[in-house]
Amino acid sequence: xxxxxxxxxxxxxxxxxxxxxxxxxxxxxxxxxxxxxxxxxxxxxxxxxxxxxxxxxxxxxxxxxxxxxxxxxxxxxxxxxxxxxxxxxxxxxxxxxxxxxxxxxxxxxxxxxxxxxxxxxxxxxxxxxxxxxxxxxxxxxxxxxxxxxxxxxxxxxxxxxxxxxxxxxxxxxxxxxxxxxxxxxxxxxxxxxxxxxxxxxxxxxxxxxxxxxxxxxxxxxxxxxxxxxxxxxxxxxxxxxxxxxxxxxxxxxxxxxxxxxxxxxxxxxxxxxxxxxxxxxxxxxxxxxxxxxxxxxxxxxxx
Length: 303
What we know:
By secondary structure, the protein is of the alpha/beta class. It is built from ten helices and 18 strands. Strands 6-5-4-3-2-1-18 form a seven-stranded mixed beta sheet. A seven-stranded mixed beta sheet has the order 7-8-9-14-15-16-17.
């Protein structure tokens, strides 16, 4: 199973001529997750050739407009396209009240059925649990209630060595138990250790999304060891005082979080419109955490 992340929007509150507000799509086999839905999201979905009908789960981190103003437009377009699906929206409970009047206005044409799931802003919580994927929300540190999201592949069973099935005459009924960790006892009473019979499965893939948030060390325990971390970097270190005032992070602080969390790779985004070029964000972060990349809209990152 591979994770494929597409960046649709990488800017903070003010969009620019070449950067949209926050939105991302994470695709895993059989699932397509939209993470935040800033203004212009549906345009970016078109540009990146992402099928609207595949989106059945939307995760809204918080109720600042640059993270959800594109939602009603997206729902309206899905209706015009005749898409018939339950659209699961994970957000602050107040979001339903904010957009319900608009939903009521287009109700006669509704083919999409929004299903709202309130987030917990006090502690981590599993909000989606499927056969292959678990999604966990967790509170971050911002000026209003805000959640990050952790997308984690469930562990796969070990692979049994096919040549040993015949060598030890292992019954088909016992193969599943061996894949689950059991030893095997031959007809002669010999115990064959599980580690001799199996090949360990690949490490489960994981992706963590952290925006908007101030530098908050307790997050490291939640996102520890993820393959890919997206962490906001609204400001450069020279504006650290402003970052503290607005409860945002600098590029250096995002890198410090990545290092503290032992992640494999860091993506930074949510750039302030003050800055026309993002290379300086990447340079600042790489002084602390070398495997850092400043996101570019339209880029795909594969785990």
